[in-house]
């Protein structure tokens, strides 16, 4: 899930996007039923005593709150099946305990199920509290937009109704086999792919087959043209198999063991001789570049030296991890490992 917090006068706007398996980059292209009148509790015309105090507290805020847990919307099955989407804005008071109270809908999606789901999302969310310059926790107003949208696939094709994730076999992971697989196929009238094939291989046959199995079970929405005939385009589905990706804070990097890292790198170099580095290398290098660019621009000479230094340390980290497999990658590869741990601790 991605989220951000932006400071605006008197309010903290918390923006949320659904996880990839549930959210889309844009609304469905086919006409939807007309929205019903805004349901659910709407914002009162007068603020409560607690809200008045919270607005006063917002003027003293120096440390912006961050989402700690929860906040992932659950798309109601009935609304999903009906193709309903939209954004609900929920307002409340973020207390010093990190929880939201006095929740009301200030902007309805036009569908009761989505409004109720947005309120439930806000009730589950837990934040770090806002603080003054002295470090004192304070209550502030919060407006939380919760967006519900059908998922679009990676090739901007038809929306996905049910995406089945590929299973990463333990034996493949243990052998260090990893990478990306892309599946293509033509959409059938039942919303499933007809004769899907591997368009981009991981060069690990078992992983390619796992991606094919998941692709065959994935269900897309079938749109119809003005004549009422189904539109059945070709679609593309990407799948990733990486040991550094797992649920939880840090996206798995904080739990990536040295032994697995060394095994992954050995398999990659043996299998992809024309591609020296895998996605994990470029992810960590990207982190280094972003940190170095804070406050200054990297000239070509500095960037070239940075790449050479990074590559040498990467090779050394592989050797160290091979000798000390129980260590964590982030404890071996410094300072990038420290940066990754710090970013994860901040909820990023």
Blueprint (SSEs and pairs):
Elements: E1 2-8, E2 11-17, H1 49-58, E3 67-69, H2 77-81, E4 86-94, E5 100-107, H3 112-124, E6 126-127, E7 130-131, E8 137-138, E9 140-148, E10 151-152, E11 159-162, H4 170-174, E12 179-187, E13 193-200, H5 205-217, E14 219-220, E15 234-241, H6 258-271, H7 279-292, H8 300-323, H9 329-332, H10 336-345
Parallel strand pairs: 2-9
Antiparallel strand pairs: 1-2, 3-6, 4-5, 4-9, 7-8, 10-11, 11-14, 12-13, 12-15
Name the descriptors:
alpha+beta, 3-stranded antiparallel β-sheet, disordered N terminus
How would you characterize this protein structure?
The chain has 348 residues and is of the alpha+beta class. It has ten helices and 15 strands. The longest helix has 24 residues, at 300-323. The model is unreliable at 1-44 (pLDDT under 50).
Shape: flat
As residue ranges, the low-confidence spans are 1-44
Annotation field: number of helices: 10
Major β-sheet annotation: 5 strands, mixed
Question: Briefly, what is this?
Answer:
The chain is of the alpha+beta class and 348 residues long. Helices cover 32% and strands 24% of the residues.
